[in-house]
Amino acid sequence: MLKSGITKRWILTTILVIALILLTLSAVVTFMIRGYYYDTVRNKLNAIGTSTAIADFFRGYLDVSRDVFAERAREYVFNYTDGNIAEVWIYYKDSSDVVVTSTGFDVASTLSEDYDLAFDSPSGRGVCVTELDSGEKVMALTVLLPRSHGKSNGAVRFITSMEEIDHKVVDVALIALVTVLFALILVVISGLFFIRSILVPVNRINAATKKIAAGKYNEKIPVSDRNDEIGELTESINFMTSEIARTDRMKSDFISTVSHELRTPLTAIKGWAETLLTVSDGKDETIDDGLRVILAESDRLRGLVEDLLDFSRMETGRMSLRIERIDILAELDDAVYVLRDRARREGIEIVYNTPDYAAPMDGDPDRIQQVFVNVIDNAIKYTPAGGRILILASLEANAMKISVSDTGCGISEEDLPHVKEKFYKANVSVKGSGIGLAVCDEIVQMHGGRLDISSKLGVGTTVDILLPMRA
């Protein structure tokens, strides 16, 4: 599933965006809750540490000795009723001298940020979040006592621990994170289910269209009870396939009918041309030349008709083989013998070398020879005068390999993968139907063999035919 392009894009876009939004929202909510808790503590500290009440309580004890001030400070602590909210420290003169605490424990000399803020503030108050020497995180409010001659006369500091609040904030953050993960899991499960409901039929359609593109027009996509666009697409493709199959049958029937109808007049034309050439006795050279042209073109047209008939049989699955025991090299000898004189007339040398032993196989002799003749004929067509065709046979494992190499024009890299396709011609300047190699490839495959073509433009082409031999 994850290999699918749609699923990858969905994960990389929708899921990541949703995850980012949810994480951002959870972070915002966490910081808002943290801010709310911190503001609540700050407001409580401000309510406890009223500057006026503190100043009134210590009025008349600002310029007294430390012991007298300490007695007054202990009195303040004794009357302090908010110990459950904040601890109280009382300073004498400066922040380095804590004379009394609400807990009763002595506190070492310390410098605090909130004291500095209060000292620098016109209101004489300073509040901040800081850490004690013990490492505990606290929020502290320092309220300065009225100053004399610009100097401090002491301060009251209220301290409350933030550890419990921070734990609550962490719990909220964890709950938010778990909620985000749970939401993402739900989105992923529902999304994958939805994507699967799309991908499964799409993959089925994709597989069917590949078979249809390969010529299997009877392939049908199972129609589900989906009442959506995919269901409509499935019905449209099935209808399209039916129309293509009907058109293809009409084409094959037309080609078969026309080819059969052409056979009879071609036979008559060729027969009468041969008869007239026989009885002319060379009396009129122009007429004899014309008759020879008629015979040559009749043979070429007859070859085209046979190719069309083979194509029609191959398309409709009616191509059959007449299997018998044959000698591969004997059939190759006959094909070379048929075409050697033609190659010589066109100034092309045929170099022919085969082993001197038999190469038995079970095959159709006419079809095997048809393959050899067609391949060698193509080599002659595409090789200019003065060129050479090399025909070699060699034993490879349990197969006989026949290689036909020419020094012709060659085939470009763009055309080479398509030369075995029906009606494809790499060189339109050479006469031919463009289906000969397709028929040859089909015949070789029907015999359990393989036909491979390699070529280089301007250098030449090699056709390798591998046919299985009898053990």
Q: What features would you describe in this structure?
A:
The relative contact order is 0.06. The strands form three sheets. Strands 2-1-5-4-3 form a five-stranded antiparallel β-sheet. A five-stranded mixed β-sheet has the order 7-9-10-12-11. The chain is built from ten helices and twelve strands. It starts with a helix and ends with a strand. Strand 9 and strand 10 form a beta hairpin. The protein has four domains: 5-32 and 168-206; 52-161, PAS domain (Beta-Lactamase), CATH 3.30.450; 229-316, Helix Hairpins (Orthogonal Bundle), CATH 1.10.287.130; 324-468, Heat Shock Protein 90 (2-Layer Sandwich). The protein is α+β, with helices and mostly antiparallel strands and 471 residues long. The radius of gyration is 50 Å and the shape is rod-shaped. Helix 5 (163-213) runs parallel beside helix 6 (229-279), helix 7 (285-316) crosses helix 10 (436-446) and helix 9 runs antiparallel to helix 10. It has helices at 5-48, 51-57, 66-78, 113-120, 163-213, 229-279, 285-316, 328-345, 365-381, 436-446; strands spanning 87-91, 98-101, 125-131, 137-144, 155-161, 324-327, 349-353, 360-363, 388-396, 399-406, 450-456, 460-468.
Strand-residue proportion: 15-25%
**Helix run count:** 10
N- and C-termini, Cα separation? 47 Å
Question: What name goes with the CATH superfamily of the largest domain?
Answer: Histidine kinase-like ATPase, C-terminal domain
CATH fold call of the largest domain: Heat Shock Protein 90
Mean pLDDT across residues: 82
